[in-house]
Specification:
alpha/beta; TIM Barrel; five-stranded parallel β-sheet; three-stranded parallel β-sheet; 11 helices
Length: about 270
Amino acid sequence: MNQASAHWTLYGTTLSSRFLIGTAGYPSPLVLADSIAASGAQIVTVGLKRTLAAAGDNGFIAIIQAAVRERGARLLPNTAGCRTAREAVTLAHMARELYGTTWIKLEVVGDEHTLQPDPWGTVEAAAQLVKDAFHVFPYCTDDLVTCQRLLDAGCELLMPWGAPIGSGQGLINPFALRTLRARLPDVPLIVDAGIGAPSHAAQAMELGMDGVLLNSAVSQAVDPVRMARAFGQAIEAGRGAFEAGVMAPQAMAVASTPVSGHPFLLD
């Protein structure tokens, strides 16, 4: 893919990679560091609740910070595990003090079974965090109206789910994602959650999504480093296909070599 076409901007920061990678569940700090490098990702997410609870983290936090520095990447703390807007806002302020960044991935869980984000709590927290000078990356469903309310609250990008967190189901509602792309043509859209295979990531990019965030599909792979590389390649290929113009499906067969109007021989 043309490298120039890969560039995109989030909150004033220009990036060349459209892969955002998580850091939970890796078998060792070394595998985590190698996976981040293999992915080519320039945004690395970390759960603050996990950080605060990781008194015996075996060096994971230091590895994450070192990997981010070495790649010139951006750290994206998240409020995973929060159940209310107030809790998420409090955790975001702690993340800013701890990591020295105004970037925050906002998660407010509304359902314990599906881990579906609470639309009202997410909008409430987003509005407050924008007032507090944060750059908010809101994890949300693919509901168009909820997404519009988040934009009204001051978010400059959206992170709709592909499927429930950690489910590996891929894109359960491509129609909704297409609708978001059509109705919000200038808003960066990053599919977050539910991606289980590189083909899922490529499909998201072919639909016109701007990026993909995932964690479990890499960290739980037999070979996380190879899987991270595979996802990076799939995301790049999917974006290239979208920019080149993916062939529209047809209801009937269409001959790839038409013979109408051309002479041909009969036996």
